[in-house]
Amino acid sequence: MANKNLNAAKTAKKDEFYTQLTDIERELQHYWPHFRDKVVLCNCDDPYESNFFKYFALRFNQLGLKKLICTCYNGSPVQGNELMIDFGDFTNDPKKIAYKVEITEVKDLNGDGAVDLSDVQYLLKNDKNVCSILKTGDFRDPECIELLKQADIVVTNPPFSLFREYVAQLIEYKKKFLIIGNQNNITYKEVFPLLMKNQIWLGYKSGDMAFKVPDDYEPKETRFWQDESGQKWRSLGNICWYTNLDHNKRHEEIDLVCRYSSDEYPRYDNYNAINVNRVDDIPCDYNEIMGVPITFLDKYNPEQFEIIGIDRYVEDNPNYGHRFLLKGKEVYARILIRNKHPQTI
Ligand SMILES: C[S@@+](CC[C@H](N)C(=O)[O-])C[C@H]1O[C@@H](n2cnc3c(N)ncnc32)[C@H](O)[C@@H]1O
C-alpha cells in the first residue's frame, strides 16, 4: 500500500502545477450563467491548496451554486500540515491522505475578503458542509466516479500527464466541464475529433500561464523563477482552456480581410488544399479546403467555419496521418477547414 502511494506520488510529481486565482477569475467570468443551481466538482484539487476550491467557495452564493465538491488525491506532495497520515515503517515521508470536502452552504465568510486555510475550517464548522476520507482520491476511482455522476460541471486543472484519460472520462459520463490543458493536446486523437464535431471547444484565454510549483521542483534555464518569498514558479507558453460550456467568444466571427490568389496560397504537394500560414491571412472568398495553424481553434466560430480534419495523429485513418508538404518541406501542424459562407464577389 505504502509503495503504491509512493509510486503514485512519483508519477504525480510533474503534474504539480498550481493555478493562480487570477487566471481562474479571468476565465470563469465568462461562464457565470451556467453555474446557477449547479453541483460543481473540482476533482484534482486539495481544498487547502487549490484556488479552484477558493474561487467557488468565495463565489458560492454569487454564482448560486447548489453544491461544491472538491477531492484531494493522495499522491499530492505535502504542502500544508493538515490531514496527514504517516505510513510508519515504510517511509519517513508522511503523505497526505485523500479526502473530499462537500460544501452546500456558505454563510458570510469571515470578512477578511480572502479565503484561506481558516476559511476551509470555518466552512466545515457548518453542519451542512462535510469533510470525509477517500480511498485514493484518484479521479478514476469508483468512489470519485460516484461524485462525478452527481456533478453538473467539472472545473479544474487536471494532471497534465493524464489529460487523455481525464477528458475521456468526462465525455463518457456526459459532463459539462471547463478545464486547463496544453495546446498540444488539440492534436491528440482522443481530443481532436471532439473539437471537430463541436462537442468541445477552447475557452477564452490561451497562451502563457504561470503556475506555482512545489519546493522540490528542479530549477530550469527558462520559464522558471523564485519570488521574494522563495516560492518556485514555472510558466508554460501553450496553455488553454477546454470546455463544452457555451460562451460568447465562439460566436464572434473572424474578420477576414484577405483575398485568395494562387500565388499567395500554394497547394500542398500531397493533399488537395491550400496552405494558410496565419489565421489573419485566411482568405474571405475561398470555398474549398484550407490548412490553417492549430491556433485557429482559439478563434473558431462553428457558424463561420467547418472543421474537416487535421494533418496528423490518426495512424489508422486514411484521411489523416500524413504531414503536409509544401515544395517538399513539411509544414507545422495544420487543421483543415472550410468557410461556410465565403464571399462571392
Ligand atoms: C496540474 S495540478 C493542478 C492542481 C489544482 N487543480 C490547481 O489547479 O491548482 C494537477 C493535480 O492533480 C493531482 N493528481 C495527479 N494524479 C491524479 C489522479 N489520478 N487523480 C486526481 N488527482 C490527481 C496532482 O497531485 C495535482 O495536484
Helix coverage percent? 10-25%
Number of extended strands = 18
- Envelope shape: elongated
Main β-sheet, in a few words?
Answer: 10 strands, mixed
What is the number of helices?
8
Mean pLDDT: 88
In short:
With 345 residues, the protein is α+β, with helices and mostly antiparallel strands.
Explain what this protein looks like in three dimensions.
The protein has 8 helices and 18 strands. The chain is an alpha+beta fold and 345 residues long. The chain has 2 domains: 2-248; 252-339, no CATH class. Residues 1-12 and 78-94 have low confidence and may be disordered. S-adenosylmethionine binds at residues 12, 15-19, 44-45, 50-52, 73, 75-76, 137-139, 156-160, 162.
Helices and strands in order, then pairings?
Blueprint: H1 2-12, E1 18-19, H2 21-28, E2 39-42, H3 51-58, H4 60-63, E3 67-72, E4 84-85, E5 95-96, E6 99-103, H5 117-124, E7 130-133, H6 142-150, E8 153-156, H7 163-172, E9 176-182, H8 192-196, E10 201-213, E11 224-226, E12 232-243, E13 274-275, E14 290-293, E15 305-310, E16 325-326, E17 329-330, E18 334-339
Parallel strand pairs: 2-3, 2-8, 8-9, 13-14
Antiparallel strand pairs: 1-10, 3-6, 4-5, 6-7, 9-12, 10-12, 11-12, 14-18, 15-18, 16-17
The protein binds S-adenosylmethionine.
